[in-house]
Design goal:
Elements: H1 2-6, H2 12-24, H3 40-52, E1 58-62, H4 70-87, E2 90-94, H5 98-101, E3 106-111, E4 114-120
Parallel strand pairs: 1-2
Antiparallel strand pairs: 3-4
Helix pairs in contact: 2-3, 3-4
Length: 125
């Protein structure tokens, strides 16, 4: 709800939208829990819902799977792909995780601030 508060939209419709997003990431039943009562993966899914609550066209995600295990990482990547399809939101992900990168549509590689490759992820193995 915090992003909705900042946007002046913390009304009943905003709250319903926030709960709907928590439901989409599988956490509606944990809406009243504090961050320290959630696992790392649950916290990351809340972060995805929070990033989408104001309906942005682009979400910038810096190492979104860094604090989680590989199974949870795959689940988070699937959640972001589904949100991309269902909400039309583009996720721009910064990561060193090649497994996560391989689950995306496009990979732009940088070295020393310069683009050194721009390729379809399916071409990367």
């Amino acid at each position: 709800m915090l992003p909705l508060n900042y946007a002046g939209r913390a009304d009943r419709d905003g709250a319903q939208h926030a709960i709907a997003l928590l439901d989409e990431v599988g956490l509606a039943g944990r809406a009243r829990h504090r961050p320290d009562q959630l696992s790392g993966g649950q916290q990351q899914r809340v972060a995805i819902a929070r990033a989408l609550v104001n309906r942005p066209s682009v979400v910038f995600a810096d190492e979104p799977t860094g604090p989680v295990d590989s199974e949870t990482s795959t689940q988070l990547a699937e959640t972001m792909r589904r949100m991309n399809r269902e909400h039309g939101t583009t996720f721009l992900i910064v990561t060193h995780d090649l497994d996560l990168a391989a689950q995306t549509d496009r990979i732009v590689r940088l070295r020393d601030g310069q683009v050194i490759a721009d390729e379809a992820a399916a071409a990367v193995a």
